Amino acid sequence: MYKINIVCVGDLKEDFYKKAEADFLKRLKHMGMINIIELPPVKLSNNPSESEVATALKKEAEQISKNVSGKVFVLAKEGKSYTSEEFSSLLFSSFENSAVTFVIGSSYGLDENFKKGCNKISFSKMTFPHHLFRIMLEEQIYRAFTIKNNITYHK
Predict the structure, then answer these.
(1) Which of 35, 30, 53, 51 is nearest to 103 (CA)?
(2) 2-9 and 100-104 as β-strands: parallel, antiparallel, unpaired?
């Protein structure tokens, strides 16, 4: 059984995101074990300085580090982009008898030092809300399984 961890800074608040996630997790439950780990973002002032943001990202990275295992991928716009087929190959070649962990940072991103030790993936050069991106990642993981198993979902 494949084990995938998705470590997210922040939780899903909107009902439509929760419903979308429940749908993809239901689809995936027969294909692999998906573990969602939600970590609270560090609270910032209304207009945080760069220094305040950097300190918060470092604290968040400490919490993230305690919750990752196996091969770690961070989702970052400076990462490498893949087609869905390439992503599927990457995912299944990454298990090697251990888990795969995907990390989604807060709305301010992820600590630069934390990212240095991780594999970076980009879905786009655009910026997306981290809640929406979480659903996009879950959909691409599901799509990767359908590609691997030759299920007609993927076109």
Answers:
(1) 35
(2) parallel
